[in-house]
Amino acid sequence: MSDDHKKHDSTPADKTSTDGKMAGIVSKMQTVKSVWDKAPEGAKKANALRHYQSAEKAQKAGNDAEAIRELDEATKALA
Questions:
Q1: Which residues contact 64 (CB under 8 A, 6 or more apart)?
Q2: What is the value of pTM for the model shown?
Q3: Is residue 36 part of a domain?
């Protein structure tokens, strides 16, 4: 088997790992959004929205670590 085939053989596992991470981020985004929706209007909610929007932007750019960090900050803002 050539090196090319070995590289391609690992792709499905890599994709599954990436899909799992993506699903975790999407789930966390849904959870944060749900809490945000129920939060009373005010500075905390506005601050959380900014972090949530930054998380969306990071997630779309493929920056999972930044997305998670921003979601954590949104969660803290709502506490």
A1: 21, 22, 25, 58
A2: 0.71
A3: yes
